[in-house]
Write a structure and sequence with these properties.
58% strand, globular, 15 strands, six-stranded antiparallel sheet, mainly beta
C-alpha cells in the first residue's frame, strides 16, 4: 500500500471506499450513515497502557447486534493476570460510539460495570469500574492520556467485496497519568 490519502469523504454514495491507502492524520470523513451494510458494521476502541510494572488493555466494541467491553490486566511484578469480558447481545443496550475518534464520548453503565471515555482532540480521559473481577476483588481504573506527538496512523483498506472495508486509526505514544485498583492492590 503506497497511496497517501488526501482530504475528503471516506465512502461514496454506494458505501464504497473512495480511495484506499494510508495517512499520518485523520484526513478522511467517516460517517456511519454512509455505510451500506449496517448489520455488518463493527466499531472498536482499544486502549493499551504499558509500564514496567503492569499492562492494561481495554477494548470497547459495538455492532448492530452485540456490544462488549473487555479488560485484560497483567501484573508483571507479582505474575498475576486478570481477564474479563462483558457482552450485551441482540440490541439489549448497545454502546454508542462517537462519530469521530478525535472527539466525542462513550458512556455506558450496567449494574456490574461502567465505562466512560471523554475525548477532546489531543486529550482523553478513561474510567472503568467492574465489580467482582476476581474472587470478590472489584476493579477500577482512571487514565488521563495526552498526545505528546502527532503519532497517528490511518489505514483505509478494501476487502474482496466492494462494500466491505477496514478503516483504522492508531494514536501512539500518549503520556498517561492515572491508577488501577484491584481490590486493595494499587498500581
Amino acid at each position: 500500500m503506497n497511496v497517501l490519502l488526501k482530504s475528503g469523504k471516506l465512502l461514496d454514495e454506494n458505501g464504497q471506499l473512495i480511495s484506499s491507502g494510508f495517512a499520518f492524520e485523520l484526513v478522511r470523513e467517516y460517517r456511519k450513515s454512509d455505510v451500506v451494510l449496517h448489520a455488518r458494521l463493527k466499531e472498536i476502541n482499544r486502549y493499551n497502557i504499558v509500564s514496567k510494572d503492569f499492562a492494561l488493555s481495554i477494548s470497547i466494541s459495538s455492532s448492530l447486534n452485540t456490544s462488549y467491553v473487555s479488560l485484560c490486566f497483567n501484573d508483571f511484578k507479582n505474575d498475576k493476570s486478570y481477564i474479563k469480558t462483558k457482552i450485551q447481545v441482540l440490541r439489549t443496550g448497545n454502546i454508542v460510539m462517537p462519530p469521530d475518534s478525535r472527539s466525542g464520548s462513550i458512556e455506558y453503565a450496567k449494574k456490574d460495570f461502567s465505562i466512560e471515555v471523554y475525548n477532546d482532540y489531543r486529550e482523553k480521559k478513561l474510567s472503568f469500574a467492574l465489580k467482582d473481577l476476581a474472587k470478590g476483588k472489584d476493579f477500577y481504573c482512571y487514565a488521563h492520556m495526552v498526545e505528546t506527538t502527532n503519532g497517528t496512523s490511518v489505514v483505509a483498506l478494501p476487502f474482496d467485496k466492494d462494500d466491505e472495508f477496514l478503516y483504522n486509526q492508531k494514536i501512539d505514544c500518549l503520556a498517561v497519568d492515572g491508577y488501577v485498583n484491584i481490590g486493595f492492590d494499587k498500581y
